[in-house]
Amino acid sequence: MKGFFVTGTDTGVGKTLVAGALAAALRTAGLNVGVFKPVQSGALQEEPDSDAALLKTYSGVDDLVREICPVAFPAPLAPLVAAKVEGVTLSPGWYEPALRRLEERYDYLLVEGAGGLAVPLAPGLLVLDVMKHFGLPVLLVARPTLGTVNHTLLSVEALRARGLTVAGVLLNGFREGAIGICEQTNPELIEEYGRIPVLARLPWLEGAFTRSGLAGWVERYADLDYLRVLLTEGKAMACLQKGWCSI
C-alpha cells in the first residue's frame, strides 16, 4: 500500500479538513487517491458532519461513508471508551476487510487517525499501534500557536521511536491579524529542532468549503509538489529534489 497516514498533535487540529483537502488536490493533479478512516467517535458515519462524510465530500471519492469508515461510535470520547459505552470491543484488524476493498480501487490512500497519537482504540491498542501496522509515511497536522513546538516535537519523537517515517508537518489555522512573533517563529523552530520539514502554513478557513476551493487552498499554501513526488517516487527522490534528506 502507498499513501500517507494523516495524524495530529491533538484532537481538533483539523486532520479531517487537511486530509480531505490533500486528497482533493492530489486527485485534481491526476492521482488515483482514496481516503480511509479506520474508526471514528463523536458521530455515526451518515451524519453530515461526521469525519467520514466530510472526507467523502472534501475528497470527491464515490465510496460509501461506511466504506471510508467501517466503525463509528456516537459518543464524543476516545474510541476505546466510546466502544465500551456501546458494549463493544474492537477486535484486532477490524478495518482489514474495508481496507482491502479500497486498496483494490485506489493507487494511493490517505488514512486519517482518531485524535492524537496516544488515543486508546481498543484494549492495549493506541493510534500509534495502528499507524505502525500501516507503515505509511506520516503527515503531522499541528496548530500554529503557542505550545505547538512542544506538542509537535514530542509527537515527532514518538513516531520515530516506533520506527515510522515522518514526512512533514502541516501547520493549520493561521488567523489573519493574529500572527505574532510566536506564529512567525514556530515553523523554523520545528524544522530546526525536529529535523523535519514544515510542508504547509495553512490559513484559517471560514464558512462552507468547496472541493475545488480546498484543492486550491492546499496548492497555494502547501508544498504539494514535494508531497506528490514523495507519494509517487519515494523518499529518496523527494529528498533529492527538495533537500530534506533528514526525514
* Low-pLDDT segments, ≥5 res: none
Strand content: 15-25%
How many strands in all?
Answer: 10
Query: What integer is the average pLDDT?
Result: 94
Q: What structural class should be given to the helix and strand makeup? A: alpha/beta
Helix amount: 40-55%
- The N- to C-terminal Cα distance equals 20 Å
How would you sum up the global shape? globular
Domains, number: 1
Q: Total helix count?
A: 11
For the biggest sheet, the summary is:
6 strands, parallel
Question: Under the CATH scheme, which class?
Answer: Alpha Beta
Order of helices and strands: EHEEHHEHHEEEHEHEHEHHH
- Please name the fourth-level CATH homologous superfamily: P-loop containing nucleotide triphosphate hydrolases
Oligomer: single chain
CATH architecture: 3-Layer(aba) Sandwich
- The gyration radius over C-alpha positions equals 17 Å
Record the strand order, biggest sheet: 2-5-1-8-9-10
The CATH topology annotation reads as Rossmann fold
Question: Could you describe the 3D structure shown?
Answer:
The chain is of the alpha/beta class. It has a single domain, classed as Rossmann fold, CATH 3.40.50. It has eleven helices and ten strands. The protein has helices at residues 15-28, 51-59, 65-68, 79-85, 96-105, 127-134, 148-161, 181-194, 211-221, 224-233, 235-242; strands at residues 3-8, 33-36, 39-41, 71-73, 108-112, 120-122, 125-126, 138-142, 166-174, 198-203. A six-stranded parallel beta sheet has the order 2-5-1-8-9-10, with helices on both faces. The chain has a two-stranded parallel ribbon with strand order 3-4. The chain has a two-stranded antiparallel sheet with strand order 6-7. Helix 1 (15-28) runs parallel beside helix 2 (51-59), helix 7 (148-161) packs parallel to helix 8 and helix 10 (224-233) runs antiparallel to helix 11.
